[in-house]
Amino acid sequence: MAYATMADVAARTGVTYSKADSDRGTVLLDDAAVMIDQIAPDASADAKKVVSCRMVIRAMENPGDGVGLPIGANQGSM
Questions:
Q1: Rounded to 5 degrees, what are φ and ψ at 61?
Q2: What is the mean pLDDT of each run of 10 residues along the chain (78 residues)?
Q3: What confidence score (pLDDT) does residue 73 get?
Q4: 29 near 36, Cβ under 8 Å?
Q5: Does residue 62 come out as left (phi exceeding 0), alpha (psi in the -120 to 50 range) or beta?
Q6: How many other β-carbons are positioned within 10 Å of the β-carbon of residue 11?
Q7: Rounded CA separation 63/73 (Å)
Q8: At 22, is the secondary structure helix, strand, or coil?
Q9: Residue 49 CB: number of other CB atoms within 10 A?
Q10: How far does Cα 46 stand from its chain's mean position?
Q11: Phi/psi zone of residue 5: left (φ > 0), alpha (ψ -120 to 50 degrees), beta?
Q12: Is-contact 77 32, C-beta < 8 A?
């Protein structure tokens, strides 16, 4: 069960997503919910929504070529 929708993601990014991107985002939101439930099951509904959106935004901004920053990194050298 996802804690956010693609409408929530779009509201934060200002992006109108294509059907393909929206479908991908929906799957990622479900994935995010599973991770959140394992790490912070007692978090508030608002926190779960915000974290879900941020996880999906980060994943969708990654080109998917394996060159992006690793999960958990907060800075990188260019």
A1: -80, -15
A2: 97 96 96 96 97 95 64 56
A3: 54
A4: no
A5: beta
A6: 12
A7: 16
A8: helix
A9: 18
A10: 14
A11: beta
A12: no
